[in-house]
Amino acid sequence: MLRAGGAGLPGGIGPEGYVIRSTTVDGRPATVIAGQTDRAVLYGAFHLLRLVQTRQPVTGLDIASAPKVKVRVLNHWDNLDRNVERGYAGDSLWDWHKLPGWQDPRYVDYARANASLGVNGTVLNNVNAKADSLTAPYIAKAAALADTFRPYGIRVYLSARFSAPIEIGALKTSDPLDPAVRAFWKAKADEIYRAIPDFGGFLVKANSEGQPGPQDYGRTHADGANMLAEAVGPHGGIVMWRAFVYSAEQPEDRVKQAANEFVPLDGTFAPNVIVQVKNGPLDFQPREPFHPLFGATPKTPLMLEVQLTKEYLGFATHLAYLGPMWEEVLAADTWRRGRGSTVARVVEGRVFPQALTGMAGVANIGTDRNWSGSHFDQANWYAFGRMAWDPDARARDIAEDWVRMTFSNDPAFVAPAVGMMMGSREAVVNYMTPLGLTHLMATGHHYGPGPWVDNLERADWTPVYYHRAAADGIGFDRTKTGSDAVGQYAPEAAKALLADERHLLWFRHLPWDHRVRSGRTLWDELVVRYDLGVSQVGEMQRTWASLAPYVDPERHAEQAAFLAIQRQEAQWWRDASVAYFRTFARRPLPAGHAEPPESLEHYRSLSFPYAPGHD
Ligand code: GCV
User: Which amino acid residue places its CA nearest to atom 2 of ligand 1?
Assistant: First the structure.
């Protein structure tokens, strides 16, 4: 392997792009991996290894690859006590107490694994941040991690608590326009960069779910972001400012609030700020339409945030390969600059040219021996990296590479395993939230069904706010007659979303006897979908059982047990949801579909105070 000084590399390959070429050196066949930097060559080396591991030809190579997105980061929702918010894979990998003195060897494995996927950054601490992360002892700990990650091309970022100037800076305010506050952040950035010269920058959750922010002082998100941008800018740092905001007073349909807040700020952010937007406008549900902010801010770069950890898709026990979900959102057409203005192209900065581009994945990584809580959850980490490198990559191709590298290259294994993965997320949609229903999970931990919950602190945390089931029908009217959330999309995109039955009850409130595409009534279709989801899991169980000859007994047995849990919980979701919704629908179940075995009261009475993933 050798590193070229740029000569012979295709134009525009950039600092992370590489070529892999079959050639001859001194008359002997050789493979050259070349790029402008060490990390580019490292990425190329991993690409070559992938070809070897997936049994692709390694002669006659002429490959050039460069990332289409600059900032490809994991977001760890890891707390300093090692609890991971929405984490289902053990404790946080970061052993803060022993850092910087002790570096767990897994830090190197973590960095190497990420480099093999093209991930080039990691935000170490939870967006629900503690100011302690910005104190000198914790900066030293973060610096130790940064030293370990650096050879693998991975930069360290920190979530910043907006009220840090008060909490650790002895100031009386965190007002972003206050000169003392600005001086605090400048000095803090200087201090961090002395310890971590290639520090990536800050991630901020502000004025969201109780977090402090600039609005506490009557300032805008742009005022807050720009203040931090000013502090890290001279060092080459960036600010990733989250758009996951909704007002404490809930004057408006929650899914409209982020766009209402951020569209008017377009053009007011500093050039080193990128706004981080979840894939959908609600909160990482099994299915949501794409976030209306994509394409709606021509002058503001937006990065896509997806959730690898399956807070709303069955934790680590349910098999749900998320590649198809991310492909669905990336391929969605925003129509903001005519046909083909897909979310992928917005994120790549090609619909409206952007110098700064990014993708963030909420990590599903912890101290579990298999890293992610289940073997198949590793595929979501893997797919995130590959899609952040190339948002146009296909979920199926990525699944196939992963299956081959993780289990077996035998075609008798690969095809069924990939098929099972590709259908898995849709199964979850069917048994949890079919036909555009959303946010029906139990309170707090989000484990299991809770469609009946109607008594939380705020209405827009309750499932009843989202499904609106009543005697006259079900669904949230987001057309003109309702909240008009659909009006936040370009007209062509709005038309496509309204015509898409997968989003039916996201956008409309419809009578129980409404005829859907299948010709069934809405009520019958709901029941059919719930049962379909359960049977799809049964199908996955059968597929997995048939694959035993190709997998070591230990991994096979664990996955078989997890699928059995998933099957049981899918049935629970179905039974509880049917028992609940029929109290409004007041109709018989369609022929051949079984009555829920227990009463609604039974499902309502189930309680899981120790479910994992709490904050
Ligand atoms: C980190 C959801 C989750 C929270 C999470 C929040 C966010 O509401 O339930 O745990 O907080 O999203 O993305 O900030």
Answer: 283
